Amino acid sequence: MKDLFGQALLDYQNDLYTVDLITSTNISDADELPLPYLFRSFKQMPSIEQKALHLAKGKVLDVGCGSGSHSLYLQKKGFSVKGIDVSKGAIEVANKRGVLNTELINLFDETESFDTILLLMNGTGIFQELAQVSTYLNHLKSITNPNGQILIDSSDIKYMYEDDDGGLWIDTNANYYGELDYFLSYKGEDELPMKWLYLDFDTLKKVSESIGLTCEKIATGEHHDFLAKLSLL
User: Fold this and answer.
1) 187 — alpha (psi -120 to 50), left (phi > 0) or beta?
2) Would you tell me the crossing angle of helices 47-55 and 69-76 to the nearest 10 degrees?
3) What is the average pLDDT value for the chain, to the nearest integer?
4) DSSP states of the chain as a string?
5) pTM given for the model
């Protein structure tokens, strides 16, 4: 991976902001992802993210912390927060912005335990595909303290398959409709494509309960998105 995401964050942090990230998927056209959005304040965050931060308790793990916006907010509120990311540039930026505890690490390599685990900005994306959801959730479960919680958001993208008459053109013989190929480019360079998963709530609830986690829908957003709270049974 070239870590174009991390490079873009570094450029913005270092006042070298000239262009935005470009993202697309196998079912959607190219779109700009404004870099300032990745440095947003609490007031600029969607209501689902604000709700998740309000629900945080105890020792917190911020998975895919990016530039550190969520971690910084909680840290300033007095929480003990650890931010992790697989982007070297993102971790560098989070450190520069003042996040005290970060690590360049894959989620599966995290062995500490936490009272709150945050997976925000379509947190189910890192699961990559439906077949891996239970594997990821089992690991999250293993690093969640008793009476702890996993706060995760996602979107049901079934609407993206609707035709003008309201019918769906989902291929029932294909993989789960929320499994997408995600493409990112920055300053004319293309990142290697990656798998990204948008998970509907009912499917998340079914898989969660199958491995011994409760799953409750906490909030619903304006764009088919939702926030779920997973807890140990």
Assistant:
1) left
2) 40
3) 95
4) ---HHHHHHHHHHTT---S-EEEEETTEEEEEE-GGGGG--GGGS-HHHHHHHHH--SSEEEET-TTSHHHHHHHHTT--EEEEES-HHHHHHHHHHT-SSEEE--GGG----EEEEEETTTGGGGG-SGGGHHHHHHHHHHTEEEEEEEEEEEE-GGGGGB-TTS-B---TTSS-TTEEEEEEEETTEEPPPEEEE---HHHHHHHHHHTTEEEEEEEE-SSSEEEEEEEE-
5) 0.95
Tell me, what amino acid is at 51?
Answer: K
CA angle 210, 147, 196 (to 5 degrees): 50
End-to-end CA distance of the chain: 38
Collect all residues with Cβ–Cβ distance below 8 Å to 189 and sequence separation of at least 6.
Answer: 2, 4
Determine the Cα–Cα distance for residues 102 and 37; give it in Å rounded to an integer.
21
CB atoms within 10 A of CB 143: 16
For the stretch 38-66, pLDDT in tens is 999 999 999 999 999 999 999 999 999 99
Q: Residue 115: what residue type?
A: D
- Using CA atoms, how far residue 42 sits from 54, 68, 76, 102, 221, in Å, is 11, 12, 11, 20, 16
Please state, for a pLDDT cut of 90, what percent of the chain lies above it: 91
**For residue 65, what are the contacts with CB-CB under 8 A and spacing of at least 6?**
71, 83, 84, 85, 90, 91, 94, 99, 102
